[in-house]
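User: My advisor, Dr. K., asked me to get a structural model of this assembly before our group meeting. I'm new to this, so sorry if the format is off. These are the inputs:
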Amino acid sequence: MTQVTLENVSKSFNETVVISDFNLAIENKEFVVLVGPSGCGKTTTLRMIAGLEQASGGVIRFGERDVTGLRPGKRNCAMVFQNYALYPHMTVAQNITYGMRVRGAPEAEVKEALANAARILDLEPYLDRLPKKLSGGQRQRVAIGRALVRKPDVYLFDEPLSNLDAKLRIEMRVEIRDLHRRLGTTIVYVTHDQVEAMTMADRVVVMNEGRIEQAADPITLYREPANLFVAGFIGAPSMNFLPGAISQGTFTGADGCSFPIPPQRLASGTDCAKAVCGVRPEHILAEASGPAKVKQKVKVVEPLGPHTLQVGMVGDVQFTAQVPAARKVSPDDVVELGLDLDELHFFDAATGKVLPKGS
Amino acid sequence: MRIGSAAQFGPVARGFVIGGVLAWAFVTLFPFYWTFVTSFKNLRIIVGGPTYFPFIDFQPSVHGWVELFTGVRGNMFKNLANSTIVGVSAAVVATLFGTMAAYALARYRFRVPLLAGLAFAVIAIGGYVALTELGMGRFGAISLAFAVALATSIVLGNLKLPGPLLGNEDIIFWFISQRMFPPIVSAFALFLLYSEFGKAGFKMTDTYLGLTLCYVAFSLPIVVWLMRDFFEALPPEVEEAAIVDDVPVWRIFLQIVLPMVMPGLAATFMITLAFVWNEYLFALFLTNTQWQTLPILVASQISQRGDEWWALSTAALTAIVPMMLVVWLLGRLMRSGLMLGSIK
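Assistant: The format is fine. Below is the predicted structure of the whole assembly, which you can bring to the meeting.
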């Protein structure tokens, strides 16, 4: 129940810089998800907050408390690991209460905390079992129970659902989200799964190569990606990128398409010789009636039920379109697709940054 | 983990596998059986050619066992007690300290300047030579030189010295290197060292302390080497979970890490105990009457009155059976699967 502030935090292993000049202010009771491809530094950042890695530079604060040099045990955070990390020789009850007993908590308090955690996490029937007698989801709930009784200032989750199967993952996602609502604590959560990030977070921090690409609430990330990386990372299937040029308010694609850009999508007078037009598969129009049209050579058709994905090429780039399920398309067809002008994103290909929007 | 079962082989392949296993079982078990039946033979039966089945092709006699237990051929009970006391203490001490060292080497990063190690060697050896040249007694000289060398190298080890740094792998190699030369190389040196201790008033040869310390020193490298592998196989997250939970390091080691490596610990203890139990060379050099161990007793059966195979067999069995008991007792601890459920 506290803010977590990272100021100019950096981390290097020997000569390799993993994190440089990292700044993030996590609000009290906020659920923040760090997301990014593997090796982007998200787990290292989490481990620095926990104290399992020492920051090479910068300051980490819990509330007003500077914890940068503090050892992990003194920071009062609780961590849940990807592989659960339960004590294999202890029962569920012992696993949950071990930390409290070590810290010398009175027996009555220990009992109450255990009962409370077991009730919240539906672990009551399993308290006397060893971890090896539990399913993956139950094990992860024990790990969360161990974190609960710590009554920490901040919860840290390191890819806690990655080892679970898809169905259980969706259930646990809801459980953790609900737990956050009930406990009202600060949570920092690391995942490589953008769907997990989008569905759980109050705020998503997209990381790449040790830097923050964008930190915003899920809808803003989706609707207003700040750069090509975020645009491509958030959303499934990924956004399509058409290379081209912008001149006098008109986009001319490398594949030959050309259309005027609505003024609210691009500030007037913005010219860019090497630009990228981004359009999400779900923003392909059912009827290619407007001025923005591309020709797609279809390679694969993926019927998903509610709609169909049409994967193919536009010019030299891969292009995926989401079309109504009823549409009949076969591989090797060349089809004309309309783009929703109000949902287009324009980026500078050289910097990767989004081009300024008009009002 | 089950890789496959015998059922997946065809009948012919299965026959080969079973035949091979039985053949190997015969190779390993027959000497044991031979020792056992020989212990019930007397001179007349033995010189009369090989016989295999008691009561069928020879009439067993228990005189070998009577001689053993009545002490006609050396005090078996005393040697058995010596072997047990020295073996268990050396194995316990070596496993205890070796395990702690191995944990440190598995979980913490050490950086020792090579210069600090060199300084130790130069001061220890040079100091000893110089001090004895100056007329100091050998015992005093070696104690002083060693103490100064140790203190200096500890101080130097914490300084930023130029030159290469030795890491954990180098420390492990240094441990293992102590077992790379034949033990006889150090046996003489150790005997001379113990004699010097004796002259200075600390009797080390033929004492409990002397023999145990020697065995601890020789078992430590194996313990460190084996246990480090067991520790490195543990997922660090389990310990990290405890660290975040503010559990002190010693409790993590004793209450979380040790239970997780219990099979490895039992196996390592077993190997150490077996090494000390069977050790002959150092026992021969460093003991004479008070602290003789079982291997010495077994070997002495040959030298006294020619080859008396029944006596040798009874002594050998006396040495084998306790170890079989220990294996049986510790075997259940060695079963793997303790880690199940901790991580995915």
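One thing worth pointing out at the meeting: The mean pLDDT of chain A is 92.

User: Perfect, thanks a lot.
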